[in-house]
């Protein structure tokens, strides 16, 4: 058991809160039972799991640790003081893992989406980890095939994104890339793309948002680049009755994604 907060392993894990260190080491933090359970259930490799039994909040933690060990992870018991040093949550649950960054490429997506009618979500310039995490949760719930994160401001592997996503970062394939590459990839596949903007005339419920397709959303402050606005198959908007000029981007993304899910389930109208 590690009992000193000065332990080099402890200090190194704390460094992984910084993007620069995550990229340098090629590793990330996964904290919490649900997040780690989803990582294991989706075949994410785990290097090590730091655990503190005194902070466990349920009865399933021993099974999770056994599963992690079976997958090759090292289980490292630590004292409550050390775990609170490791944790980035206000109320730690006694489980924190370190894992390799699950990097994916467009070539990976081509293989994953080869036999499906895909529904791809594209976000550009998202600033807040909470918004990116919420978009991932909604993408998982709406059945999105992949999430493309363009011109990143927030790192997808930020511990707060992992937390806000409740582990759905590991259930939805994610690729970080420039907008130009994302647009060229979508265009190469011939899938229609729908750019969300308050300036559009077409309501999102009136656009043909059915698989295969891509929906594109930008930051609340700057919106989408001209690349998307000029080249989208159609611009769409969410009707707003109040004085606010935009919705929170995660809320907007959720509405649009579930409209794709609804229309795809219902199917095209007669004669379409």
Describe this structure in words.
- The chain is α/β, with parallel strands linked by helices.
- The chain has 2 domains: 8-100, 2-Layer Sandwich (60s Ribosomal Protein L30, Chain: A), CATH 3.30.1330; 106-266, SPOUT methyltransferase, trefoil knot domain (Alpha/beta knot).
- The protein has 11 helices and 11 strands.
- The chain has a 7-stranded parallel β-sheet. A 4-stranded mixed β-sheet has the order 1-4-2-3.
- Strand 2, helix 4 (61-70) and strand 3 form a beta-alpha-beta unit.
- Helix 3 (33-41) packs parallel to helix 4, helix 7 runs parallel beside helix 8 (159-165) and helix 7 packs parallel to helix 11 (249-266).
- The longest helix has 18 residues, at 249-266.
- The N and C termini lie far apart (65 Å).
- The relative contact order is 0.14.
> Helices and strands: which structural class?
alpha/beta
Number of strands: 11
Tell me the domain tally. Answer: 2
Shape: elongated
Any key phrases for this structure?
272 residues; alpha/beta; 60s Ribosomal Protein L30, Chain: A; Alpha/beta knot; 2 domains; 7-stranded parallel sheet; 4-stranded mixed sheet; 11 helices; 38% helix; 18% strand
In short:
With 272 residues, the protein is α/β, with parallel strands linked by helices.
């Amino acid at each position: 058991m590690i009992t000193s907060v000065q332990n080099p392993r402890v200090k190194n894990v704390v460094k992984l809160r910084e993007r620069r260190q995550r990229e340098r080491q090629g590793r990330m933090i996964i904290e919490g039972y649900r997040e780690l359970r989803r990582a294991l259930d989706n075949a994410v490799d785990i290097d090590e799991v730091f655990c503190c039994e005194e902070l466990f909040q349920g009865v399933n933690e021993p099974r999770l640790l056994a599963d992690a060990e079976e997958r090759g992870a090292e289980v490292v018991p630590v004292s409550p003081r050390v775990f609170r040093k490791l944790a980035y949550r206000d109320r730690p649950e006694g489980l924190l893992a370190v894992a390799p960054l699950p990097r994916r490429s467009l070539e990976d997506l081509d293989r994953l989406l080869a036999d499906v009618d895909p529904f791809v979500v594209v976000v550009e310039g998202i600033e807040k980890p909470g918004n990116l995490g919420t978009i991932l949760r909604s993408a998982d719930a709406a059945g999105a095939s992949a999430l493309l994160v363009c011109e990143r401001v927030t790192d997808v592997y930020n511990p707060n994104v992992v937390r806000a996503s409740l582990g759905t970062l590991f259930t939805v394939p994610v690729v970080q890339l420039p907008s130009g590459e994302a647009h060229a990839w979508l265009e190469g596949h011939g899938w229609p793309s729908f750019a969300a903007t308050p300036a559009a005339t077409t309501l999102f419920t009136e656009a043909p948002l059915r698989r295969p397709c891509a929906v594109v959303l930008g930051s609340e402050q700057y919106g989408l680049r001209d690349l998307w606005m000029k080249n989208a198959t159609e611009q769409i908007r969410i009707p707003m009755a109040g004085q606010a000029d935009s919705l929170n981007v995660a809320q907007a993304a959720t509405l649009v994604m579930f409209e794709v899910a609804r229309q795809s389930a219902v199917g095209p109208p007669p004669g379409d």
